[in-house]
């Protein structure tokens, strides 16, 4: 059944100011998404240079849009005017929702969630954009598991419309609805899913990407596989191009999580995927991955 406008999710919590933790590709893109949608955004990084990098990322992105005739200087000034960078998490005390996009490491995330729980005002929603760790594990270190939720954005966040909204058994229905309404307000399409490895998209996407690596190990050239998929499946990128965008370290972490959950040998990470990660060929972000960008 197609939902009617009456079924559209509503903002059950007042959301005016959004906090973002992290300064990497996903964090920068997420800051941009909210600022472009008119929200004031407070983002926190581990140093002045990293914090400044987020602003530069957004400036460049807006400059490109202006050059393509898709934006203008006034819009750019307005978006940049909504940004507040900080190096201390205490800057998040008054935000209505925090979206974290820091390292994909459970100890690091749990330390952050325990800290956000202390810092953020009562009622503030704590969201994670993790793609490989259980949301439940982030919730269990807080005193407000009902306010903890997954908001899984895709890379590049300003472009990709989908957000997987991931609820745990403890997430409040009001929090789930508010986050889905917030996605709509930022021009995103929300799909709801439960807290299981890979959620929906990665559970289907990564076995394919991993199989592409295994296929290349049988002697097929990477470029040939990329071309075949783009031609036949009409995907915007071939598997190796996409792995290099996502990051091979992130991809390996996701694949290992899928293996842990589904326990079938087919999910075993491809040897070459482990090898490129060990060699530091992490993808576009390091200038080299399956393909060379230098
Ligand atoms: N930031 C902002 N805008 C961007 C951008 C970025 N990083 N990259 C591209 N764009 C914009 C361009 O400005 C352009 O906008 P316009 O249409 O308004 O002019 C539009 O996106 C298209 O860009 P281009 O014409 O330069 O290039 P392409 O047509 O090749 O599109 C792409 C680029 C959108 C990245 C496309 O290649 C694509 O869709 N790739 C697949 C991406 C994908 O599947 N991501 C999901 C990965 S899985 C994941 O993230 C899950 C995680 O858990 C691992």
TrEMBL record:
Residues 17-195 form the 3-hydroxyacyl-CoA dehydrogenase NAD binding domain. Pathway: Lipid metabolism; butanoate metabolism. Residues 198-293 form the 3-hydroxyacyl-CoA dehydrogenase C-terminal domain. Keywords: Oxidoreductase. The keyword DNA-binding does not apply. Belongs to the 3-hydroxyacyl-CoA dehydrogenase family. This is 3-hydroxybutyryl-CoA dehydrogenase. It comes from Nocardioides fonticola. The chain holds residues 111 to 404 of 404 of the full protein.
